[in-house]
Design brief:
Distance between the termini: 81 Å
Largest sheet: none
Number of helices: 26
Shape: elongated
Radius of gyration: 26 Å
Order of helices and strands: HHHHHHHHHHHHHHHHHHHHHHHHHH
Structural class: mainly alpha
Strand content: under 5%
Helix content: over 70%
Length: 508
């Protein structure tokens, strides 16, 4: 009864009187318990006037930092936002101090899983930071968003030219002794350039990693390794390199008690071991991600795990269940996750299931046209396969010729697998030769599984089909034998049987 009545009584107190009471309570608490930053923030924030606004901002910031140390990331976001509002209410001219509050909120938003809002706020902060003409401070602002994630932290296939230009300008303006700021700017630049066709991002990642090792600063090293990982998709067959990076990141997180870093390392490892057709090892790392992300209130890894579990069903041959699981993941995200990329991933995952022989691509005809309208040349190979499924081979061939080079990102091997299917169905030997060369380094793995989202089965199976088209019967037979071995290692009987049929088809 008392709990139900008290809020109504409180609401009935005039605002001026409430503000006075909260101010007095905060001042009394400050005299006897100055370390109670959470309570101090509560009272000075609740006072809500200009006279207490400076203290409200100070203690809200301290409380936000305390919340982050407890891994209460959503509470930290609330407190950082309150600190910003109090700072603005105070009329303070300390713009640098305001940007520091904004940087804190950006980090908390990213850790709380709201990557879209974090990126937007970081963009505003970077723009404001440049007015100070202080490259070291701008480097700090740039790095506020460098929270580890295994996927791109911006709109897919887009490039933030403002951030790239700022990072490059900062690198040119930094004094020789600003090693920490230089490492941060290099890390940001590398992360912004992942998936690019040139090697600027890769070179920046290598320089960032070397600088972080020299500085022996664990957080900087974790961020630099994050950037280096982002550039291990520039060609097929780099899963072993991702394993090494993931192992180092896990060890770094454990040694220095950096929970988000440890979780990130396990994320890398379950995806890399899935790519290597080692699902038992991958599952162990996925279990670690689930346990740690639940303990430390990290919501983004749980979403990534949902995609992985759907893919695991596909590896096990439970394709109807996988299809349904992909739908459930996307429904749970409600169109708000990572700039809405979940809709595109859902289509891509279900497309890959069908391209691998589960159902008809024509089931997805309507949404495939939407994808083509949205992505154009990026989706050209998918559109060509859809046209082939509809018996429109001439149109398919014309569309395929307009395809742009594949983005060098976490979906590269899956896209190469689809390109292999397309080359075989079109009988296009030139395309087949190109795809064969690109896929060959990944011959001992599962096409696309390194994304943690989709797979088109053993890479070697696609190599066998390409070799057969290229009139290389001995190589085709060898690839199908390897595909059968990979499938058996992955516990995927359906793929082993398909490889056996492929082997019989080439006289092996």
């Amino acid at each position: 009864m008392t709990r139900a009545v008290l809020p109504h009584l409180y609401d009935g107190i005039p605002l001026a009187r409430r503000a006075l009471w909260h101010t007095r309570a905060g001042e009394a608490l400050l005299r006897v318990r100055p370390g109670q930053v959470g309570l101090l923030a509560h009272h000075f924030l609740a006072a809500g006037d200009r006279a207490t606004a400076s203290r409200a901002a100070t203690y809200a910031r301290a409380a936000a930092e305390q919340a982050q140390r407890r891994f209460a990331h959503r509470e930290a976001v609330r407190l950082w936002r309150a600190a910003l509002e109090a700072h603005d209410r105070s009329g303070s001219a300390d713009e640098r101090g305001r940007l520091e509050l904004l940087m804190g909120m950006v980090r908390a938003l990213a850790l709380a899983g709201d990557v879209v809002a974090a990126r937007e706020q970081r963009g505003a902060a970077v723009q404001a930071a440049e007015e100070f003409s202080d490259p070291e401070f701008t480097a700090d602002v740039l790095a506020a968003f460098d929270v580890p994630t295994v996927w791109t932290n911006r709109r897919y296939a887009a490039r933030d030219t403002q951030i790239v230009a700022t990072a490059e300008r900062v690198l040119g303006d930094l004094p020789a002794g600003a090693a920490t700021a230089r490492c941060r700017a290099l890390t940001t630049l590398a992360l912004e350039l992942d998936g690019a066709q040139d090697e600027r991002g890769l070179l920046a990642a290598r320089r960032a990693k070397a600088a972080a090792r020299d500085l022996a600063e664990p957080v900087l090293l974790a961020q630099a390794l994050h950037a280096r990982h982002a550039h291990t998709f520039q060609r097929a067959g780099l899963a072993c390199e991702r394993v090494r990076i993931g192992q180092e990141i896990v060890a770094l997180g454990v040694r220095h008690e950096l929970a988000p870093v440890e979780v990130f390392g396990h994320l890398i490892l379950y995806q890399a071991h899935a790519a290597l057709a080692e699902p038992t090892i991958a599952d162990a790392h996925a279990a670690a991600v689930e346990r740690l992300s639940d303990r430390y209130e990290l919501p983004l890894p749980a979403t990534l795990l949902s995609w992985y579990r759907a893919m695991r069903l596909a590896i096990d041959g439970r394709t109807d269940e996988a299809d349904a699981a992909y739908l459930r993941v996307t429904e749970g995200l409600d169109g708000t996750w990572m700039w809405g990329i979940e809709r595109d991933l859902l289509h891509f995952a279900r497309f890959c299931l069908r391209a691998s022989g589960h159902g008809s691509l024509l089931d997805l005809a309507g949404e495939a046209q939407d994808q083509y309208d949205r992505w154009g040349p990026i989706y050209a190979r998918g559109q060509a396969l859809m046209l082939l499924a509809d018996g429109r081979a001439c149109e398919a061939r014309a569309v395929a010729t307009a395809a742009r080079p594949l983005p060098r990102d976490y979906l590269l091997e899956a896209r190469l697998g689809l390109a292999a299917v397309l080359a075989v169905e079109l009988g296009d030997r030139e395309m087949a030769s190109s795809v064969y060369r690109q896929l060959l380094p990944a011959a001992d793995g599962l096409a696309g599984a390194g994304s943690g989202v989709v797979t088109l089965g053993p890479v070697a199976h696609h190599l066998g089909a390409l070799a057969h088209l290229l009139d290389r019967p001995r190589a085709a037979a060898d690839h199908y034998r390897r595909a059968r071995a990979v499938a058996e290692r992955a516990g995927a009987r359906h793929w082993a049987e398909a490889a056996g049929k492929g082997l019989a088809g080439v006289g092996g």
